[in-house]
Amino acid sequence: MAHRAGPHFLQIPGPSNVPGRILRAIEQPTIDHRGPEFQELAREVLAAVKPIFKTEQPVIIFPSSGTGAWEAALVNTLSAGDKVLMYETGQFSTLWCELAERIGIHPELLEDDWRRGARADRIEERLTADKGHEIKAVCVVHNETSTGATSKIKAVRDAIDAAGHPALLMVDTISGLGSADLRHDEWGIDITVSCSQKGLMLPPGLGFNAVSPKAVAASEAAKLPRSYWDWKGQLANNPGGNFPYTPATNMLYGLKEACAMLMEEGLDNVFARHERHAEATRRAVRTWGLEIQVVEPSEQSPVLTGVVVPDGYDADDVRKVILDKFNMSLGSGLGKVKGRVFRVGHLGDFNDLLLMGTLSGVEMGLAAAGVPHNKGGVQAAMDYLTGNS
Ligand SMILES: *Cc1c(COP(=O)(O)O)cnc(C)c1O
Predict the structure, then answer these.
(1) Residue whose CA is closest, atom 2 of ligand 1?
(2) Where do you find CATH 3.40.640.10 in the chain?
(3) pLDDT tens, 90-126?
(4) Which pLDDT score, from 0 to 100, does residue 228 have?
(5) N or C: which end of the chain has fewer CB atoms below 10 A?
(6) C-alpha 389 – ligand 1 centre gap (Å)
(7) What is the mean pLDDT of the segment spanning 53-68?
(8) What does the pLDDT read at residue 26?
(9) Helix/strand/coil (H/E/C) assignment for every residue in 119-149
(10) Confidence band (pLDDT; 50, 70, 90) for 1?
(11) Residue 36, H or E segment
């Protein structure tokens, strides 16, 4: 491929752009993962990651993608044939459900239309009907990356409590962590599942399970076979700065830097920055006269915006034109919304001018692809960012 001058705009909702500070942190000689220097690093990073999850409980780190961390959450706490309740927010909830089926769990999917977050009232209703407490876990995606819906996790916790149900609460915040507020301890989450390549600004390669004492107790009785994903070896080794097998050493250097960057900016400021960029993006989309995939305003994601293209147009054509002409990658429509939706990521190491470059690329791309739209979306976003709207 010919050289293209200037940076590529990686505006998919994960993997996100990796800042120079993190790249430089990773670019170190790999050290002995059983030596004292590593043990100090491991202890530091295992502690540094906790405030990002807003937890005092252990956070287990796997050398894996997010999918591995999903599997780890299930195999550690459940037995073959156990029922779990899942909520269909979009493609990622669907994939988690399929994974559960493949490993011998019986998921029940509360179906929905991919245009909003998980509805706590429906979860409460289903759990209330489960008088025999056959449902062992409720699994919800915090930030559904295929649509741009953020579910209200506190409301799901309250729903479980209102039903007086003992099910574990498992939350996928793979694309929410470090971008949208999530409180593992305060919200009574039993397992928070995440990974490195979205809000944490790292390359792909680390998976996380933050675990409550109730989840650890469940793991002692759970019978699904597990070895690589077993929490036991991790929980036994981590306090001494060790892992049961070779960890992703260099990624841990990067994780330490990522946690430092998030804490320097302040988590609340990080969340507010994401909210502000999301609002500017939505104003641009509305000005263009295009529809936002998620209809409920309070559930529109700070991480990404799913944009619906008009009937008769293909979102993947728009993406291709934008990649070819402007060297920017946008997220494709996944599963049910393939070709209908493109996704604009506004997460991670991101600022006003990167957002303006991104939205300019989209507006120019809509014109180049011949998609009917109104002009002025970029202007509407600028007006919002400068307080002139
Ligand atoms: C990216 C993502 C996943 C899958 O993670 P992988 O690292 O691709 O395995 C799962 N859930 C959500 C919400 C995601 O955004």
Answers:
(1) 174
(2) 20-264
(3) 999 999 999 999 999 999 999 999 999 999 999 999 9
(4) 98
(5) N
(6) 35
(7) 98
(8) 98
(9) CHHHHHHHHHHCCCCCEEEEEEECEECCCCE
(10) confident
(11) helix 36-48
Print burial letters for 335-361: b (CB count within 10 Å at least 16), e (below 16).
eebeebbbbbbbbbbbeeebbbbbbbb
CB atoms within 10 A of CB 122: 15
Q: Is 90 in the pocket of ligand 1 (CB under 6 A)?
A: no
Q: Report the nearest-CA residue for atom 3 of ligand 1.
A: 66
pTM: 0.98
86 lines ligand 1 (CB under 6 A): no
Confidence of residue 166 (pLDDT cuts 50, 70, 90): very high
Q: From residue 63, how far is each of 208, 248, 333 by CA, in Å?
A: 9, 6, 28
CA of residue 119 to ligand 1 center, whole Å = 21
Which CATH number is correct for 9-16+266-387, 2.40.30.170, 3.90.1150.10, 1.10.3720.10, 3.40.50.300? 3.90.1150.10
Please state, in angstroms and rounded to a whole number, the distance separating the CA atoms of residues 354 and 9: 8
Mean local confidence (pLDDT), 338-358: 98
Is the CB of residue 66 below 6 angstroms from any atom belonging to ligand 1? yes
pLDDT at 155: 98
Fold exhibited by the domain 20-264: Aspartate Aminotransferase; domain 2 (3.40.640)
362 ligand 1 Cβ < 6 A: no
pLDDT band at 365 (very low <50, low <70, confident <90, very high): very high
Mutate to test the pocket of ligand 1, among 141, 142, 177, 195 (most ligand atoms within 8 A of CB): 195
Residue 172 Cβ inside 6 Å of ligand 1? The answer reads yes
Residue 367 tokens, joined: 């014109």
- pLDDT in the model for residue 200: 98
Q: d(Cα 151, Cα 168) in Å, to the nearest integer? A: 17
Q: What is the pLDDT of residue 330?
A: 98
Which residue out of 70, 89, 147, 175 has the highest number of ligand 1 atoms within 8 Å of its CB and is therefore the one to mutate? Answer: 175
Where are the CATH 3.90.1150.10 domain residues in the chain? 9-16+266-387
